[in-house]
């Protein structure tokens, strides 16, 4: 991965002479090719200037990174910058451990961020609390080669078409027509957002901590019940049903013909398909009769933690400025499939002469998906202890997929357990006004 340093050096020259040098730490929670890309950006920043030095420390996963950061903050031994994933947004906003990034960098043109990247991480007043970084969204992948073998000429765009194609694939002898892992982010959050459905009352918690889950009463319940039935029919497979034991690995190996997956999965899939299959990537399927709304931004953003020396804050600002540059966003997209987060990057890709390159295949479609018409229920999720709720949802729905309870019973139980988490969170932050 090539990362231009000339523009970075120019952008940082005006800052470097006015601030004190600092060694700063940035904690992140990615592994694999994403970690490789993050390390490359850190190295590029250090090579672009000599005023600051960033040490980028991987924590293994988003969840582990969040737990370590909380523990480190309590022990007063924490980094100045930390990457947190989408589900931890409200916890961070109310933690009193971070400073809103827009307060630290008031002169940045924050409205240059695409609406889909802003909405999840901004306050009710439109102020960004964190800087969007590795932004993903849900996309629909197909193995076009396998679809054409089964006589499917048109790439499905609706769930009805997906299942029709799945039946044709099965009839043609394909063992795994469509694959998902049933993850909360994919089958509940992204499904509900693009269909304009709430997950919880109070517009998914944006209007108050007294929200309650409603996922068991919306069309999402019907979709999840459909997934159970389609799995019984042999049209849909989960991780454990595949030879690879993992849905993305099964798709990448050609075992499964269609997949709903993160844009961040694209680079690995495209590399695995090279010379074997033709891959397509498009917006996630809709049910007929529903208007398409935006998908949510996934991945993570970067927060500035409180209580650091001014020199460290200056170093953090310089690093955040560096990451915003189109060249850096293009490099991250090309290496991973994560979607650019500012509106100028698509123009930069077009001007680069590689606008049609497969390495940028997720950029335009991902931004288009996140910028679809928005509703009060598709902005994002502002629910307390939401990381724990994701685990509850998976526990209950996996039991339904295993035949231990109906999907409706699973969602009813998830709602009840989720509401208990919300009441605990509400009690913890009693009287606190949401930012």
Automatic annotation (TrEMBL):
SUPFAM superfamilies recorded for this chain?
Periplasmic binding protein-like II
Q: Which domain of life is it from?
A: Bacteria
Alphabetical list of Pfam families matching this protein? SBP_bac_8
Q: What is its main location?
A: periplasm
| Keyword terms, alphabetized | Periplasm, Plasmid, Signal, Transport
Would you indicate the residue range of the signal peptide? 1-21
Q: Which InterPro entries match?
A: Bact_solute-bd_prot1, SBP
Which ranges of the sequence are coiled-coil? none
Q: Subcellular location, in the record's words? A: Periplasm
Q: Which proteins does it associate with, and in what oligomeric form?
A: The complex is composed of two ATP-binding proteins (UgpC), two transmembrane proteins (UgpA and UgpE) and a solute-binding protein (UgpB).
Function field: Part of the ABC transporter complex UgpBAEC involved in sn-glycerol-3-phosphate (G3P) import. Binds G3P.
Q: Family assignment?
A: Belongs to the bacterial solute-binding protein 1 family.
- The protein in question is named sn-glycerol-3-phosphate-binding periplasmic protein UgpB
């Amino acid at each position: 991965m090539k990362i231009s340093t000339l523009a970075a050096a120019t952008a940082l020259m005006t800052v470097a002479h006015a601030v004190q040098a600092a060694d700063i730490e940035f904690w992140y929670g990615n592994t694999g090719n994403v970690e490789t890309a993050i390390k490359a950006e850190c190295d590029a920043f250090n090579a672009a200037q000599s005023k600051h030095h960033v040490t980028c420390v991987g924590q293994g996963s988003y969840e582990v990174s969040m737990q370590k950061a909380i523990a480190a903050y309590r022990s007063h031994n924490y980094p100045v910058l930390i990457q947190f994933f989408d589900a931890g947004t409200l916890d961070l906003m109310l933690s009193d451990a971070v400073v809103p990034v827009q307060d630290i960098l008031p002169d940045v043109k924050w409205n240059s961020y695409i609406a889909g990247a802003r909405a999840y991480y901004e306050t009710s007043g439109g102020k960004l609390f964190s800087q969007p970084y590795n932004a993903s969204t849900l996309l629909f992948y197909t193995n076009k080669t396998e679809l054409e073998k089964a006589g499917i000429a048109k790439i499905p765009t609706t769930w009805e078409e997906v299942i029709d194609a799945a039946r044709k694939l099965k009839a043609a002898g394909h063992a795994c027509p469509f694959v998902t892992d049933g993850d909360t982010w994919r089958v509940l959050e992204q499904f509900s957002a693009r269909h304009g459905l709430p997950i919880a009352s109070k517009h998914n918690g944006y209007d108050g901590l007294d929200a309650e889950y409603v996922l068991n009463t919306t069309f999402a319940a019907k979709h999840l019940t459909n997934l159970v039935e389609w799995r019984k029919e042999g049209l849909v497979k989960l991780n454990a049903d595949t030879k690879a034991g993992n849905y993305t690995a099964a798709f990448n190996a050609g075992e499964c013909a269609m997949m709903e997956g993160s844009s961040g999965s694209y680079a690995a899939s495209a590399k695995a398909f090279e010379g074997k299959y033709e891959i397509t990537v498009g917006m996630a399927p809709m049910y007929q009769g529903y208007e398409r709304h935006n998908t949510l931004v996934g991945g993570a953003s970067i927060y500035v933690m409180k209580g650091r020396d001014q020199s460290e804050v200056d170093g953090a600002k310089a690093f955040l400025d560096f990451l915003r540059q189109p060249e850096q966003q293009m490099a991250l997209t090309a290496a991973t499939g994560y979607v650019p987060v500012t509106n100028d990057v698509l123009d930069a890709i077009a001007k680069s002469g590689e606008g049609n390159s497969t390495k940028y295949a997720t950029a335009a479609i991902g931004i288009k998906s996140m910028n679809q018409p928005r509703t009060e229920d598709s902005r994002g999720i502002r629910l307390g202890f939401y990381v724990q709720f994701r685990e509850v949802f998976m526990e209950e729905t996996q039991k339904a997929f295993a035949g231990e309870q109906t999907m409706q019973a699973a969602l009813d139980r998830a709602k009840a357990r989720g509401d208990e988490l919300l009441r605990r969170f509400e009690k913890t932050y009693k009287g606190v006004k949401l930012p």
